[in-house]
Specification:
The chain is mostly helical and 70 residues long. Helix content is 57%, strand content 0%. The chain contains five helices and no strands. The protein has helices at 6-12, 14-21, 23-26, 43-52, 59-69. The chain starts with 5 loop residues before the first helix and ends with a helix.
Length: 70
């Protein structure tokens, strides 16, 4: 479970902006993304980038991170 601000998600990602604008999520306190596959556990790095504007990348996560971003 990742706790993050709706504004940060929507501002940083067109995908999350469209998702959070849907009626069923408009007033929700939290949402659960069930269809996200992240076997390499790189989503925390995506969140770090959304919050900080930069992220430290190692060679072992760069390819899985690109796959998740697609």
């Amino acid at each position: 479970v990742y706790h993050c601000h709706r504004f940060i998600l929507a501002y940083s990602s067109g995908y999350f902006l469209r998702l959070l604008q849907k009626r069923r999520y408009a007033d929700a306190d939290s949402i659960t993304l069930k269809h996200v596959s992240d076997p390499s556990n790189v989503f925390p790095h995506v969140l770090e980038y959304m919050y900080r504007g930069s992220v430290h990348l190692s060679t072992e996560i760069s390819i899985p991170l690109l796959a998740l971003a697609d």
